[in-house]
Predict the structure of FrrB.
Amino acid sequence: MKRMYLTGVVLLALASTPAISMAQDKVEASVGADLVSGYIWRGQDLGNVSIQPSASVSYKGFSLSGWGSVGIDKDDTKEFDLTLGYSTGGFSVSVTDYWFNNGPQYFHYGAHNTAHVFEAQVGYDFGVVAVNWYTNFAGADGVKANGDRAYSSYFSVAAPFRLGGLDWSAEIGAIPWETSFYNNGATGFEVSHISLKATKEIKFTDSFSLPVFAQAIWNPATEGAYFVFGLSF
């Protein structure tokens, strides 16, 4: 779910903070992968050592991207996400289709027979701080205690800064209302992600460098704590 993390024990993920961008006049594409020792998404532990490939194509502010996670442990859930988005200036909006292999197969889209979760996102990156809101609107969403669809939501605030020659990001994320989708059953407003992340590029040659990061993550709602390290290719 779009948060790529190596942990001692990711995203976002994410927590996935959109960058400020202007609509380009030509098609641009990218491909990459992260190697992670664990998969933490919005404060939740979703797996152990994983390879997380990604690919995207964009044109004039519109983008289509794919992202996946495959755990080294055979019992880890496999994930495949597709995101259609649009961004202009600091504003971004997107729809993501998350799919997991621990339920019905990929082409099952029934209201009560699917492993897909569909999420809408809207956000704005002000430069000094980025704010994002996410809401599940269809698929295998969580429910409230009375059994009604929860329209499970999550919002985050992230602030980048530079310190000691490294790029840093501080982030806080919370669940606004009751849902079984997060934290094994959120009963109401819960802060589920507090993190501090440092990123550095290790330069090997003039044309090749390897981004690495270290990150501390806390989930006050579940009393979880993780220390993270990651590699990006």
Q: What stands out?
A: Residues 5 and 36 are 5 Å apart (CA to CA).
